[in-house]
Amino acid sequence: MSEKTSKITLLKDLPPTVIIAISAAGEIRQFDQDEIIQWQADGSDTFYLLISGSVDLFRLSPAGREQILRRLEAGELFNLAPALLEDSKNPVNVRALAACELLAINKEKLYRLMNQFPEFAIRISKYLAQRLQYMTDLVEQLSLHPVRERLAGFLIQQAETPATGSWTQDEIARRLGTAREVISRTLRDFTNVGIIRMERNRIELLDREKMEKAAKGDE
Amino acid sequence: MTNLILPIIDQKKCILCGDCVDACPEDVLELDNGQLVFIRPEACTYCTACEAVCPTNAVRCAYEIRWVN
């Protein structure tokens, strides 16, 4: 188990003794493709390290509209905040995109690990700071930028982090807070102006300068 | 033909409503023996019409996103 745990990005290059202790503190849980791992607002005191597979973190409106907040691949983690807060609830819904193996660590054990291994506690703090930055950027994207800019920015981001897998137009729409038709239309427009090429199951970005301008609304 | 990339059908999610069969402009899909199948895979243009109309997300037309240098 320690070998798998050592591949978690958060734990990279920590001493083997720390990795072994973290592995021993956790419990392995497995989920099938499309299975809901957790529902938002359910009580929770557990955080998860994603050993294998991929998941979507999302929220739902009362009308059932879905906003994908993040897609996580093996090596990442989620649900850290409720494991650090008192009487906390899951902040997001989580769905397995592919069969997943998770290491689940509860609040009590997390606190113990953080007390025992300050280097681990520092990693946790840095991770939370990164997530805060990410969520701040996401709020800006959703509230201040039109879909065209959001889509250009999303395509650049995905092209530079290929580990996040492949996306359908519907998933892109749910990630960017819009409708599939809008994504489809905007992709066609990007194709027509020659900054992307749609190649069957690939979206190829052709012109970095123009893509970056589109992302900034500076065309 | 062997390397042709096609929409991915999740038979467990498919409710055999036939909406994708009707939506496909190339008549690529058909319901056969309680399953959604490709009858003319070579004609599929990956237009994603099948995915767009599927009420259960049983058809998936996904894209890898990458730079071309």
Protein described:
- The complex is a heterodimer of chains A (219) and B (69).
- By secondary structure, chain A is an alpha+beta fold.
- Helices cover 46% and strands 24% of the residues of chain A.
- Chain A has 9 helices and 11 strands.
- Chain A has a 4-stranded antiparallel sheet with strand order 1-8-3-6. In chain A, strands 2-7-4-5 form a 4-stranded antiparallel sheet. Chain A has a two-stranded antiparallel sheet with strand order 10-11.
- The termini of chain A are far apart.
- Chain B has one domain: Alpha-Beta Plaits (2-Layer Sandwich).
- Chain B is globular.
- Chain B has 69 residues and is α+β, with helices and mostly antiparallel strands.
- The mean pLDDT of chain B is 93.
- In chain B, the strands form 2 sheets. Chain B has a two-stranded antiparallel ribbon. A two-stranded antiparallel ribbon of chain B has the order 2-3.
- The chains are: A alpha+beta (219), B alpha+beta (69).
- At the A-B interface, helix 6, strand 9, helix 7 and strand 11 of A face strand 5 of B.
- Strand 11 of chain A pairs parallel with strand 5 of chain B, so a sheet runs across the interface.
